[in-house]
């Protein structure tokens, strides 16, 4: 069975969706460990409740980003993961870290990439009066939120929406599409080749997989 390591910094609702999907057999893989850069991240507690090893690394204990990322990558590799899943991991990754897990690391970002990389995506969508917003699962490359998209989900933006309402609407979709994409990877259907994402050997478009 394939092994997954998940990185979190906060609430861990996407981690929970992945735990549930593994337990229910919707993902044919095992979450071997969860790591965080924040000891207080509730995601670590979710892992412990599911009997998954949960570890926090203290950023302050390391000289710089490179040293922290080397320690984190070494710790992750003790679990020999087939896939590293970033689930609300709010720390910029060094190029060395990204290269070490190239082709086997994915992220979920709350926007319809390439629109709105970075922070405060929901606020920007509201302020710009966008008709739709959403979320993207993508392979991680050295470009922040810039790797090839695998799958997106769209939600409407209503004129009276608060940021919290839009966050919640997007997260409902995240909890559907992230387990689905992880299941594709676990089943050997997903690959990154020459900077492009492939599903079942078919190249995916800029928006990722879209059903007709
Ligand atoms: C998600 O909305 C994800 O798109 C972003 O961070 C959030 C994490 O939420 N990268 P949670 O910790 O999974 O609840």
UniProtKB/TrEMBL annotation:
In chain numbering, the residues marked as site (Raises pKa of active site His) are: 145
Involved pathway(s): Purine metabolism; IMP biosynthesis via de novo pathway; N(2)-formyl-N(1)-(5-phospho-D-ribosyl)glycinamide from N(1)-(5-phospho-D-ribosyl)glycinamide (10-formyl THF route): step 1/1
Active-site residues are 109
Domain of life where this protein originates: Bacteria
Question: What task does this protein carry out?
Answer: Catalyzes the transfer of a formyl group from 10-formyltetrahydrofolate to 5-phospho-ribosyl-glycinamide (GAR), producing 5-phospho-ribosyl-N-formylglycinamide (FGAR) and tetrahydrofolate.
Family the UniProt entry places it in: Belongs to the GART family.
- Name of this protein: Phosphoribosylglycinamide formyltransferase
Organism per entry = Rahnella ecdela
Q: Which gene encodes it?
A: purN
